[in-house]
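Quick entry between incubations.
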Amino acid sequence: MADKQFVKEIADINENFTQWYTDVVLKTQLVDYGPVKGTMVIRPYGYAIWENIQRELDARLKATGHSNAYFPMLIPISLLNKEAEHVEGFAPEVAVVNVAGGEQLAEPLVVRPTSETIICSLYSKWINSYRDLPLKLNQWANVVRWEKTTRPFLRTSEFLWQEGHTAHATREESVKETLDMLQLYSDFARDVLAMPTFTGRKSEKEKFAGAEETYGMEAMMLDGKSLQAGTTHHFGQKFSRAYDIQFLDKDSTHKYVWQSSWGVTTRLIGALIMAHGDQRGLVLPPKVAPVQAVVIPVAAHKEGVLQQAELISEQLRAAGLRVQLDVRDQSPGWKFNEWEMKGVPLRVEIGPRDIENGVATCSRRDTCDKFTLPLNGIAQQAVRLMDEIQSNMYAKSLAFRDSHVQLAHNMDELGAVLDNKCFAKVVWDKDPACEALFKEKFQATVRVMLDEPPFQDVCTCCGNKSDDLVVALVARAY
Amino acid sequence: MADKQFVKEIADINENFTQWYTDVVLKTQLVDYGPVKGTMVIRPYGYAIWENIQRELDARLKATGHSNAYFPMLIPISLLNKEAEHVEGFAPEVAVVNVAGGEQLAEPLVVRPTSETIICSLYSKWINSYRDLPLKLNQWANVVRWEKTTRPFLRTSEFLWQEGHTAHATREESVKETLDMLQLYSDFARDVLAMPTFTGRKSEKEKFAGAEETYGMEAMMLDGKSLQAGTTHHFGQKFSRAYDIQFLDKDSTHKYVWQSSWGVTTRLIGALIMAHGDQRGLVLPPKVAPVQAVVIPVAAHKEGVLQQAELISEQLRAAGLRVQLDVRDQSPGWKFNEWEMKGVPLRVEIGPRDIENGVATCSRRDTCDKFTLPLNGIAQQAVRLMDEIQSNMYAKSLAFRDSHVQLAHNMDELGAVLDNKCFAKVVWDKDPACEALFKEKFQATVRVMLDEPPFQDVCTCCGNKSDDLVVALVARAY
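Done. Structure below.
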């Protein structure tokens, strides 16, 4: 059967999740490999998801008082070098321009791996008075980080992202911004990507180079691994001291500003795929699906079928949906499989018998349920279904996640939990040696520290008592 | 007076247009200089204009069947080298990455100066059958071209743009696409930027490196110079042969595709400034103005003033306008001047006397007219004014342009026309020697060839008769 054939092209999701992912991203034409190792081409179907992510997230950023700007991509190496920890973290993975306009450059330029350094150099010029604060800018841009092991969307030499950079008059304000943005990301993941997340503080080891604190948003993939889906950083005054960003406060004294930065990337597309997909391919949440409903005429040569398919498409479009009318000359069965693989939330089939009965035959991608909808009022029903599918996908993901988190009271339990493809909650005394052991014994890491009371009075790893125990989420991660 | 003081900060538009431009872009905070020579930072007020341009243009590109995608920025130098004319044109101005991830690269990578080469390498893979055609992709991206003489927006080492790249089964189709996109750009300039343009074919000398034909859209700036505001290129099969992009046609033979590319850049922001500005600063068309209406309370401490200002702002916002309520503690006069400099189309002042009279005092930026609007129904009036200002700005620009184009029957006349800060229409026999003389004698160039019958039977430059005379637009240019 055509159905089987299609599925045959995609590796088994349970047996080889990695290959399943690669098959899906390539066969659905989300992405292709670029000519330089580790780079990706984002094809129209993948880029349309990114555009939907951008539109939804950008609106939330603007609604919370952020403005967009654009800073140069090439950064003089001396500028990068000003913040010691930052350069130490990023220097090993930068791409360097030495020649431009046919001449050797006096000073090498680094292709931005992130923009703190160049943005700080401008903030130092723009910020003079308390009246200039807070300064809350965001940039949509490409960045380059030379990575050894790469996979489309998850880790590529060049990727697209947004990076927010804010400056504030007080520590309280910048800490609040750092936490507010973490919440904004988490709300966005829930509402738009239908993806529940864990949020919390990162360990010292997992901190962003140059940050005082890093916070992360972690999402559970279907293979039980964690994917870091967004981070926010509090810099304190580290960068403002290194780049001399001072303001004259109301009390007539000069002070260094307090700063935050935060970002999400095209990695979110990888997260979507691995959080919602199934054996047939993609399952896309309606809010970001490039095509929300596909209309497929059956026996299109029969009188009235094509016209009815066009009419339905127009009605759905008029109701605000993103619609594709598929009139290509392949068979309906072939098209069903292709659009299922591409994760379109709602399929609407219309043939002579449907027309006779005054209905369309429909299929939901999230449940694969088949049902009919009356042609009369079909657009309103389709709109309602989008909400229902979006909610159902979130509920399903949440149930999956909640059933895949277990407590680990000791290292044996931790190993069992992880091998069971679950996240573990551990009690941790914050000793880096324990963190190293999680890695060494189980290839797992502390994803975030959770804001929960410890469920036992000793560290899961070393068994020591401590006054400063935290609950940490430990998982294998992308 | 405060008014005078503000104007004093900006160079005289008639005496020193270049300095006026620099003063305006910096003082209105559209832009700042980056740390690397020739780079610019697009500040929020400038970037918001770009976002409005993007939104309006992107909708037109999608409505004409184009999809967005994203291709890697770093191009292996061997890929760039495949099309001989193309590499000859761009090699002198590329930035080259030699080191990445701490290691010398086996093959240097070029930061894209434009993306034909990398996109063609993918098209070669993606296009196999006539069913894959036409392929009409667009990319919003940054590009780098190392320029010796730079000015914000007009010519910078890095700039933002969109680049469309299409592949077609026949020459007719790709020529039509090339001309359709030229028309789309010109309509966009007219409808959105309120800017009339001349469109036509470029001379051999001014062609894009690797194109068979280049078409340009030229706009007249207030100093009588021309600004190339957009170009479209027809490649014929030059790139498809160099990059081996073949398809199996319906007749079962393999054929090379026919291609076009086209782009507009952040330069359009420079065009806007120099086409509409005046001594007070920017004059922005409502369609792209970041702030369409500013509401300024006068005697804000008096009872009811602030509330009324807030109410008006809300009403204007609810009517779909981009509104700024300016409650900073500067004086109203200071604010009037600042927002005039920033080119906001409509200013709405509201003070105790206005409230008494049930009106708001308003000022249009395009005409500087002052008038009152009844508070009752003010939002509808403001929306109507946006249309009126947009139309009036276009009409004004068109009248300016039409009164600054003159025929030049010979070289003396050409010199006089150009010195009179006008564009010249010349009759040209297409001899490159004549084109060189325009440059040598008058620092002017052939901007485009117009689709008009020759107004005399000899070349304006050499006086020769020819069967192949064209009317060309000759001007000094940015």
